[in-house]
Every structure is written in C-alpha cells, then in structure tokens.
Amino acid sequence: MIHPSTIKFLKDLKKNNDKSWFDANRKTYDAAKADFIAFVDALIKDMSTFDSSLSELTAKNCIFRINRDVRFSKDKSPYKTNMGASINKGGKKVSDAGYYFHLEPGQSFIAGGCYMPEPEDLNNIRQEIDYGFEEWKTIINNKTFKKYFPNGIESPGTLVRPPKGYDESNPAIEFIKMKGFIVSCPISDAALTDQKNFKAIIKTFEAIKPLVDFMNKAMG
Length: 220
Fold this sequence. Notes:
The chain is an alpha+beta fold. It has 10 helices and 4 strands. The longest helix has 22 residues, at 26-47. The two termini are 35 Å apart.
C-alpha cells in the first residue's frame, strides 16, 4: 500500500510548489516516487490475474511525470500535487480504454473507462453502444458494478443534440451523447495506507473490466 510519508510529501508539495523547495527535498520525492512505483507494480501483478493484457506492463509504462506542462496554462506551478497511473495494455502512451489510479491527499480515486476518445474511436464506441445496447445495459446494471460505481457512467462532456446519424428517441441516446465514458470511486488516505484494503482495490478494478472490454472491442 501507500506509505504515509508519500501522502505527506504530496501535502507538503502543495504548500511549497516551487523548484527551490523541490530540489531541497529531492530525496523525499525519490522515496515517494519509489513507493508509488512499487504500489503500481503490485496493482499490475494482481490485475493481470483477471486481465491478461496487462501482464507485460510495468509501473514505469504507466506512471505520469510529476512535472506540469505550463506552456498554455495561467497556473505556472511547476509540479503536479498528485501521482497518477494509466494502466492498460499499452500503458500511458496509448488511447485504449483501461484503468486509472489517482493519488492525491484527500482526493484519491480508482477509475476506468475511456476519458476523451479520439473522434474515430468515439464514433465507434457510440455505434457499439447503439448496436449492443442490451450488452451495455447488462454491464452497467450489474450488481457488482453498481456496488462499486453507484454514480454509473460519467462523462467529461455531453452533446446538447444527438450526434449525426442518431435520433433523440434512441433508447441509448443518454450514452450516445457522451464525449467520454468513465467510472470512478474515491478512496481515503487512511484506506490507502492500510494493507488489508489492497484486495478491495483489486476487486474495484476488476469490476471495471467488462466496461473496458466493451469499449476496446468497439475501437478494434
């Protein structure tokens, strides 16, 4: 699990988000990064038991850099105050549907799906939902799925009108209008630092797999 010192480092970074502080605390950061890498590697190992496409991954394929891209942002803070890992068959550099873990003090969460698919992929997912709506409903109405994700499918944006080729009367239109398809659930700092919760985290990710499979099938 996550060591409390890693969470403390991220809290301290949020209060001191500048290069001079970061450089002075480089060893603490290195320890926090190593802790997160070990945690993600452990996730991948156990997740591979239900999703064999992850078996060749390592944490380094999945973890995002802590440096922010500030070129087009008004916020020039140089560092992210979270650690994240995109876990799918190609790692963080591919756009396949997959799993995501977000570590941020007081705001950590487990998630999965496809956040903002490219236009062609989005069209293919919409078509798959339309053609396979019964399968889609079976996935999102599954008792285990609803237990872990009571808020259901969420989207980073939704169209006002149906996309071209679809009618407002389509029974799947609520989902067809979505620009992304994700599920998430929060996890507390206390839960993250307690080893007895590791199996529950794996079970949460496992509940996402049918959704991931559906969308990756749609994207080919």
